[in-house]
Amino acid sequence: MSILASQYRMLTVLREVESFLIVAKMPLIRKLEFAVELRMARLYDMTMREIGPNAVEEGSTKSHLLKIISGIYIDDAPKKKQRAA
Known about the structure:
Layout: H1 3-23, H2 28-51, H3 62-70
């Protein structure tokens, strides 16, 4: 199975789990626990799509992964204007 196909399959599975949680007859606390795990799975899936499956082998750092997961990109921060000498 290709990487793209496996990522699409993962997203489909996550959506099915969401649908199940909405209608499931279980205590609210259990639904919340599942929702947290589902969110973690979505973040993992999003991160893997962003950095690619070989990123760990290519030397990505934990801080880079955390920035991607949290949506904070240091590179997108406004740059200070440098004065011409």
